[in-house]
Amino acid sequence: MMIDKFTEIHASIYNSYVQEFQANGGKVIGICYSQVPVPEVYHAAGMLGIRLRANQITATTLGDAHFGPVVCSFPKSILQMAGEGKLKFLDGVVTSSLCDTMRRLDDCWRRAAKDMDGLLPPYHYYFAVPHKKYDFNLEWFTEELRLHVKTLENRFDVKITTESLNHSIKLHNHGRRLLRRLDDIRSRPGVPISGTDALSVFVAAVSMPMEKFVELTETLLSELESSPKTVKGKKLFMVGSVNDDRAFIESIEQTGAVVVGDMMSFGAKYYENMIEEDSDDPLYEIARAYLMNLNHPRMFGRFKERSAFLAERVKQSGAQGVILQNIRFCDMHGCENSLFENDLTAMGIPCLKLEREYGPLVETERVKMRAQAFVERI
Amino acid sequence: MRKELMAFNYDWQLLVTYQNLRTLLGNTTPGEQEAIFSFLPRRANTFEMLKQIGHAMYYLVDATCEWLDDLVHAKEKGKKAVLTTYCYPVGILQAFDCVPINAEVLSAYGGLVFSRGVIEFLDHCVELGMTETSCSGQRGSMGAYMAGLGTEPDFCLANTAGICDSNANSFHFYTSYKDIPMYMHDSPPDLTGERATRYNRQDFRQMLLFLEKQTGKKVDWDKLAAVIHEIQRQDDLINDIQQLMTVVPNPVPPLVQPIIYLLKFGFNGVAGATRVLEEMLRVSEENYKKGVAGTLSGKERARVLPSYIEHYTMDFRFFNFFNHLDISMLGCMLNYFFPQGAPYAAGREDQCYKMDTSSEDAIIDSLADQLSRMPMIKQIRGPYDAPEMWLEDTLSACKLYKADCTIYVGTLGCRNTWGMVKPFMQDLEAAGYPSYALFADAFDDRARSWEACKSAMQEFLEVRKII
After folding, report:
1. Alpha carbon of B201: minimum distance to chain A alpha carbons (Å)
2. What is the pLDDT of residue B37?
3. What is the ipTM for the molecules in this complex?
4. From CA A75, how far away is CA A32, in angstroms rounded?
5. Is A204 in contact with A310 (CB distance < 8 Å)?
6. Interval A70-99 mean pLDDT
7. Å from A161 to nearest chain B CA?
8. For chain A, does the N or the C end have fewer beta carbons within 10 angstroms?
9. Is A280 exposed, middle or buried, given 0-12, 13-18 or 19+ CB atoms closer than 10 A?
């Protein structure tokens, strides 16, 4: 089964495709979010941008030693991965101002690297992302992207041209269309793929070279479209903080549910950024698409827009209920989930708010119990 | 929320409390005041410390009453009420006939004067959907406003995107929940340089358009010029007080520190507040001439620099703790505003703002520069150890004010500073300043009781041989 391939890629950030890419002389950059900074730019430089994640740790001791106590477990887990030498293969890392704790990953990682040699990859860049969408914010973001391109060109002796960027945009747009197709398939009455497996596909999109991803996904979609298999269960939609943990979705699905859609970063948020193709200024188009489609509570004051978008997506997916989850101490998702809950409930859509930790899932039974009660309620 | 808490508006209760205090202070002899205060044991520390700042106490109460009266009666007076945050320089609002609803200042006022504190209002925000881990600084008063216990804000102005998610998120939640317009400034990770300056100024101009739209008014340039003049006067007085803090012993009384930032936050450019500063400067100069410290005993055993914020639950216990130990307080991050001439900015003048009234554009740029240098807005926008940021400012202040130690206090919602407080403390220690991170919440004693905080700080001071 093709899905097994995706599960294998999902299992390790340093999967066989990344290894092969590096073995052929390619440089690999770890990035903090699917939307900022942008994989197209690395691809255009002949490099590979993969999203940082931390599903291979069993503790957060190093993270706890550098971050304070009341901080989200996601950046702590990434630092732990670095401390355990599991990110040593990276040629560079780009942190960004996605949220306060993710931007403090930059500070803590640099600090930890003072104590532990080789902890920080040789190329290290901090990328600032505006929180608004006015013209001057876009101007800043575009400049930031151009500056980043310059540092990549200087550090890695590469050239990022208009042609190479336009080619990368086309390729990544194609990848996005495939993911959208996957979600269309998931929204049909007979769902041929579980949410757990779908998560692996979304994770793979930002964990391997896009050419290979396109190849594998096209095969997978053909399989799914002709598959007689259907996954039974109450249809659910997932919203909120970052999750790349199959076990989390699996725990929910084991209660008699199937996750058919999401508004998450390892998920549908990635394919919303369709970029204008064949432009004279592709960097501007990349910046515009990424900033204008940045659909995250960090973009303060745009709740109504997000709420309407979510309602539409839930409707399209055919979901019968919505799970609004957040990692503890992620106040942005936590608070916005409550606002979503108000709006969705008013529309008659059942919701479950759930707080959890990132990383090694130690609370399976609690999650299952909450999900079970919710599924029974629908 | 309990029914009885819904009986009176939060802002009205504060107004009445301060009006009563004004009457009491104005119409009684010092002896009578002592007698009355002795019946208010839960305010004993506050009164004891207020006495250390002379007549500034009366002027502060006056200015507070004036502001609260404007707030409570904003609608009758034809003023727009603007929900805002502590580090927003509210002077600009005067030019649009608006009155600020300063969330953290109102939380602190409530926490100081109400016996029950603001805990139930904090919790009310959670009942409505905010996470319990959200910042307590805003939730204290915001809970009351969310329950409708105050003048309804017409719109919101905040400036913490790119600085403090917890803060920005609280205003995002409030405005989304109540469906009122908001303008949120955004900050890049650096302060100076052409890009950052341009970005901050473009943002400020965008905000002015928003303000004009919400108020239906154009900038009143005469009013704004007067406000700027007053801001300059206030900044000069603050600079003079902060210069005196370099002296050993430090002649500045402990309560002067929070009052300085209260005035900058709540009374930016308000003429009535300027005389509070004048009086605090006079008292400090008098201490200086006598060669005594600003502490209760006039002696100085050590000098402490809170590296972030201070602790604000009832009765100024945090300040009183140091006051009684003869430890001078050197101001926290909230005391650094970076106007031209600020003593802590010596050698770093490029980081300061300058009020330039030569043209309308110059005025706007000056105000934008002031905004980008407000406490926290300046220091935690970028990596903590980058130039112009938190570590540089703290080390400069430690050196200038001859600090013996630093203490970090925040709220449990301070994701940004808790995010890297450990590396920050390690760097302070490496620079020779014993440093302690107090696990506590500056607005909510339930996170850690005051008694436990006190013991922990006492232990730190003793173990590190500060006292």
Report:
1. 10
2. 79
3. 0.96
4. 9
5. no
6. 95
7. 25
8. N
9. exposed
